[in-house]
Write a structure and sequence with these properties.
Strand content of chain A: 15-25%
Radius of gyration of chain B: 20 Å
Radius of gyration of chain A: 21 Å
Number of domains of chain B: 2
CATH class of the largest domain in chain B: Mainly Alpha
Order of helices and strands of chain A: HEEEHEHEHEEH
Largest sheet of chain A: 5 strands, mixed
Order of helices and strands of chain B: HHHHH
CATH class of chain A: Alpha Beta
Number of strands of chain B: 0
Oligomer: heterodimer
CATH topology of chain A: Glutaredoxin
Helix content of chain A: 25-40%
Helix content of chain B: 55-70%
Largest interface: A-B, 22 and 21 residues
Number of helices of chain B: 5
Shape of chain A: elongated
Number of helices of chain A: 5
Structural class of chain A: alpha/beta
Strand order of the largest sheet of chain A: 5-4-3-6-7
Shape of chain B: extended
Structural class of chain B: mainly alpha
Largest sheet of chain B: none
CATH architecture of chain A: 3-Layer(aba) Sandwich
CATH superfamily of chain A: Glutaredoxin
Distance between the termini of chain A: 61 Å
Number of strands of chain A: 7
Chain lengths: 176, 122
Amino acid sequence: MKTFHWRLAPFFIFLALAVVFWRGLALDPHHLPSAKVGQPLPPFELQSFDDAKLSSKSMLGHVSLLNVWASWCMACADEQQVLMQLAKQGVVIYGLNYKDTMGNAKEWLGEWGNPYEQIGEDVEGKVAINLGVYGAPETFLIDKQGIIRYRHVGALTLLIWEKEFLPLIKSLENVG
Amino acid sequence: MRVAFFLIALLINTVYADAIYPLPTAKQEAQFKHLLADLRCLVCQNQDLADSNAGLAKDLRAEVYHRVKEGQSDNEIIKYLTDRYGDFILFNPPMKGITALLWFAPWMFLGFGIIIFWRRFR
């Protein structure tokens, strides 16, 4: 057997590092790991239009989505048609209206459609901070016990819905 | 001339920051400043919280301010933020299992280098 060529070791270390860093370039820096997945929803009670309220307690007992949106958010308009489709299929979607005004929000929903079961006005963005939100749109999957099971950052598409959400929802529906 | 303008702009900036976030003691002011410099803005990821003008950065700055004013320690404030945003919000990653390689890889490479050097010239 030949002896190991120590002279070549730096070259191979370089190659290994190059592969690792090259692959790192393809990562999206905006896809951050969420600190909140697997944790219970932070308790909140928010005012909504028409004297309705959205509280974290009312989200217990069924699997639902919590969608963070705002009328000033461009990507939210793209996402809205997907949410409308999901709502038609019977998916329960709650809306967290992030740093918005009621007037603007109402007008925006009139234009793009309202898929939400209930909406909460998070005017100062405090609930969003407790959820670890760093920009709209974001969508959380909440299980029957109020535990956050998945979080999607950015506009939801049907592809992501089928790939990431549906399998999870099926397994969550079957439990308890 | 340009330098003078720049310096004046800098000066105005600090006065401005102190006016929005007045703190009773110099110690708290120092704490507030060093916390903001150590925390990442999650929207514009290469800026710290002190420099960023993103909406979320402003909210988090206010949050840190209130906590400093209440007399919370660095650890309490950092825990509050990492509980919500994960370690990514810290510019200095904490030492734990998953980051061990990050902290020790430079020493590992130094070790490799010494071994290779020694093998080569023995």
